[in-house]
Amino acid sequence: MEREKDIYLRPMTGEDTDNIIKWRNTDFVRRNFIYQEPFTRQGHETWTRDMISTGKAVQFIICEKGTDRPVGSVYLRDIDRKHNKAEYGIFIGEEDALCRGYGTRAAQLMLAYAFEELKLHKVMLRVLAENARAKRSYEKAGFVQEAYLRDEVFLEGSYRDVILMAILKEEWRNADGKND
Fold first, then answer.
1. Torsion of CA 93, 117, 48, 153, to 10 degrees
2. Starting from the edge strand earliest in sequence, which strands make up the sheet with 122-128, in order?
């Protein structure tokens, strides 16, 4: 079975709130986020009102084809229309959906949305340096490292390094034989 045929993205709705809260509070998801505070219904509703409803962010649910089971979420935040850029984020919330290529495919689908639909020029992300699995997935999707920030965040009692990665529309267009 081809991995790119395994998932699809659909717009997030209010019905996804319980899953998103559950996923974001799961240890294997939370520990890979820079923001590690407990995720609440109020926080998600504030995010939806202040970011999604205003167009400052877009969020989709990653679903498995065939079963339509939601397994995670992907989003673009801080959408900057002046400079045509945004920050990418993802989490796979179902443990049995990890290591199946879903993260890479979701990134590819979201980049297509960012560059084709939103007409962005650049998509960037931040990843904890020790999260090698995520970094590999981002590289497979076309992101390249732009900066390595030492002792950037203080989490769980210690300073941690953060890697900034990004992809430009032209790089994405030229990857894998894509042409406009």
1. 60
2. 7-11, 58-64, 70-80, 85-92, 122-128, 158-168, 144-155
Distance CA 68, CA 7 (A): 9
Q: Which domain holds residue 52?
A: 3-177
User: Tokens for 50?
Assistant: 């202040």
Give the total number of structural domains in the chain: 1
Map residue 67 onto helix, strand or coil: coil
Report d(CA 24, CA 45) in Å as an integer.
Answer: 14
pTM of the model: 0.90
Count how many Cα atoms sit within 13 Å of the Cα of residue 111 in the half-sphere of its side chain.
Answer: 27
CATH assignment of the domain containing 157 = 3.40.630.30
Among candidate residues 5, 3, 1, the one with its CA nearest the CA of residue 101: 3
Maximum Cα interatomic distance, the chain, rounded to a whole number of Å: 48
Quick one: tokens of 166? 């990004």
Sign of CA dihedral 108, 110, 113, 118: negative
pLDDT (tens digit per residue) in 74-91 = 999 999 999 999 999 999
